[in-house]
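for the writeup, i need someone to sanity check this before i put it in the appendix. the sequnce is what the collaborator sent (i think, or maybe the updated version? ugh). structure was predicted straight from it, no edits. if anything looks off just tell me and ill rerun, i have time this weekend
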Amino acid sequence: MANELTTRTTDQFAKLAKILTGDAMKRQIAAALPRNITPERLTRVVLSAVQRTPKLLECEPKSFLSCVMACAALGLEPDGLLGQAYLVPFGKTCTLVPGYQGLMKLARQSGEIASIDAHPVRHGDLFEYRYGADPSIKHVPAERPFTVLGGAANWDESWRPGPITHFYAVAKMRDGSVAFVVMPTWEVDQIRDGSQGYQASQKYNRDSPWTTDYDRMGCKTAIRRLCKYLPASVEDNRIHQAVAIDERADRGADQDVGAFVDVDNLPNLDPMPPADGPSPTPEQEGRRMKLGSREPRETKPVVKVEFQEPVDETIK
């Protein structure tokens, strides 16, 4: 476990691990998971994600467990490494963010898609596309110039790639047809600017995937739009569910995962107690003083403390 976990988070992590490995939760996860992932594997991945991001322990328990169930239903592992999905704390709410690789995985597993991919287009690339009755797309990236000297390539060290002008995503169906979307950077940036995660990073001067990994986020945005138009079988509509969840996460709206997973019968998990714990009540303070002093009780009057009862956020 990470060294920075405090006693509070250590205790909460132990409670969470007990819930996730308990029979009740394992049965619910197993009922939602596809066959290629076991409940034990998903549990290990989730607990590892919590160890990397201890702030998740401070989230309202029902929102966290709901996101775990949504990962199970979508068949995505929120490990933060493969890029399938991420569990992100926004205040006290846990948010599920499907990743770039996760959306492509679900598209391939829908049974209708042979291949799907996305790329940035840079100034200087050969890029042609057209929509309409006879749509087509062609992209030939510009290469660093070189000369051949002594049987080896001598690359031009002064050459730099041009700025990104477009992102596109393209999918080839099993019947041979092709679907694609093209998004200029101004359109991608409009979506970025409306993202709650990006807005928070700008407000608090923090890193964001939009600033550290703009290429991948732009490709994900194009794939997300393309996925809206891709066919999905009645039996497997996970790709469209993942897109809806991701868009709601961007807007900071309730993800409403209860629409496709059972979150009403989740096991109980109490919220993590606040850092300093609740203040003692006047009655508790009076009992403490009486037990700790030999003087008459009336010589040590009870100090009146203004105190608000903590809200009971226990999952029902």
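The chain has eleven helices and nine strands. Residues 24 and 31 are 11 Å apart (CA to CA).
thx in advance!!
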